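Q: My labmate handed me this sequence with no annotations at all. I'd like to see what the chain might look like in three dimensions before we decide whether it's worth expressing. Could you predict it?
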Amino acid sequence: MHIVVGVFVLSITVEERNPSECQKSPCKKEKIISVKNPISTTGQTYLNRGLSNAKLGNHREAVEDSSLCLKYAHNYPKALYRRACSFRELKEFGRALMDAKLFCGVEDKATKQKLGPQ
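A: Here is what I predict for the chain of 118 residues:
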């Protein structure tokens, strides 16, 4: 089963297990749902650290962290958006505009895939 959340498609696996397997009580069957994250743990770590740096006003470090995140998850929209915002705060408007255009392109592509052919 696939669910569209924002611009990401998450793969969800549903398994049914007997309670004896899980060593849980009364119900006959339990549904276990696992969600695949569209970004690696390392990429997510850099993304979160970049957000923290941006909130603290350390925009140069936020740009570096967002760039490292993009190495693990190419064209990841959150990283592009956060890096563009940090570039804007650093008054590097040309680089901010390039990331904003990349972000919009990724967003448009994901939206078209979600809506399908028109």
